[in-house]
Amino acid sequence: MSQENVEIVRRVIEAWNRNEPERVVPLERVVPFLDPGVIFDATRRIINPKTYAGIEGIRAMLAERDEVWGEFRMEPDEFVDAGDRVVAIGRWVAKGRGSGVEVNQPIADVFTLHGGRVVRCEIGYSDRGKALEAAGLRE
What we know:
Layout: H1 2-17, H2 27-30, E1 34-41, E2 51-53, H3 54-68, E3 69-82, E4 85-96, E5 102-114, E6 117-125, H4 128-134
């Protein structure tokens, strides 16, 4: 099942990364991969750290993101299989909506899956080792 989990996380990230010309939130492409009670823990962010719950919480998170960022994507370099958890390691690449400031930041996110759906995502680990540790692995 864990290789299937890696593929699910890959598809979730691909769906997040699609930028629609009309700025349509790609949530509908992601919902089939999310548990209805999904938790997105974004408390590691420096700006506006918080936790989002359920599909409506994810919708709010994406709306907040789109308010600030004209472009935002996660470019994964590696997926680490940890059974019911998957660590996506890569970079956040973004461009500020009003400022035009560009961001290219190393990042790791930890996804927890159950029954073929993401039940929790801990985003924003700036340290690969800490993300692996959160998934129950060692570097």
